[in-house]
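Repro:
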Amino acid sequence: MSEVVLYDYWRSSASYRVRIALNLAGIEYQTVPVDLLKRDHKASAHLARNPQGLVPALEIDGHLLTQSLAIIEYLIETRPGLSLLPANPADRARARAIAYAIAMDIHPICNLGVINHVMEISGKSDDMRSAWMNKFIGEGLAAVEAMLQSTPGPLCFGDTPTLADICLAPQVYNARRWEVDISGCARIFEIAKRLEENEAFAKAHPDRAKGAQ
């Protein structure tokens, strides 16, 4: 089997998700750093991997894949025993809804490219950057907290990690990084605490990923 290569930035939420999924699948991989601050993602070499100029990109099974949720779905479909979605169809839909609420609604308006452009066209200070993150991460996670009230614990869906947990952990990291007040999100706090104790999640944490790069 060919070597698995993850083109990764240590602080990228999308890359963080894929690192968690690879760890849960027990897949060993090589990391190739793509430094977003140095604009490595806009270099021709990376654009050849991903025309969107985003991370992550994953070389696996002779394929080059992009988009974190698509990569994770590929792992679910190709790795027997990797169960990252509930068995019940309605619960699968709910798990995807939570994952999408984070990955498609919160994350895109808070990523590096968007906030840098907002700062550029507005000429605003770092205080605006913080206010932007607090508004959209705070409101987004408050909605996720409400969605989680109808799901079985102790994680997002039962006692094993799902796609929802894989998306939630990086967003909680971002909330802490930007000092977002999510004190009203008791369920999220409890889930995040349990996920921190899971080695697959701990190994994927940005602090450890940065050290590895």
